[in-house]
Amino acid sequence: MSENQIKKSIQYIFTENQVYDQGTKKRILNKITNPPQKKRRTSLMPIVVTICLLLGTGVWISTILSNSSQNQNLANTEEELPTSDNLEGISSENDKIAELEFQVSTFEDEREYYHEVIAQILPSLSDEEMLNLAKSHFRYELSVNQTPLTSNGKMEVEPGEVDVMLTFWMTPHYNVLSDEWYQKGMISGDYFSHIEKVEPDNGEVIYADGANVTAQGYKFTNMQSGSKISLKISEELRERLSLDTNEIEILVK
């Protein structure tokens, strides 16, 4: 629609609505034909805030990196320059290591010397002396409730549980004895088989083991006052135990 057609239509509206004032007509026509242009307002506040945040973040990151670099340099300096306490500790540890190395060297020299002396002495020993030397590498003990049996083979115990143990210790020969002589030093056969008879015969067989030591025995429970436990051992075991008898009696009080 052209501008003249619009004006004619508006003039018709004025006539129908009885608008005769010329000033009013002009104002209405101007507003319709030339509507006012709205000014576009651009808000700069979000942009300014964003720029400030970016600048602040940059300064903050720069400060952190600077402090981190300074701390790292300080740490490196501390690592490169040990304190006097650290130096004293290192010196003390080095002294201990040197002392231990000296002791080990001394022990090795002594061991070598003793082996040379023993190698010179052993050929002069008789077979009996060699057997006694071999036997000295093994030790046997018969105990009742962890108390070694006396030489007369008799012991009294309290009522209740009674443990009878035969313990066998082995001493390493450190290559001083030949394997043949080392075997001769042991008791013949299974050491526990040298307990030939046990009464009562309802004892529970128990075991214990450790470094270079082993033990085996019997556990008797609910032993009443006046009761007795008796064992008979071999002559060979009696000799190893240095007992006066091979008849063992354990009396319950």
From TrEMBL:
Membrane spanning residue stretches: 44-65
Keyword Transmembrane helix annotated: yes
Alphabetic keyword roster: Membrane, Transmembrane, Transmembrane helix
Name of the protein in its database record: Uncharacterized protein
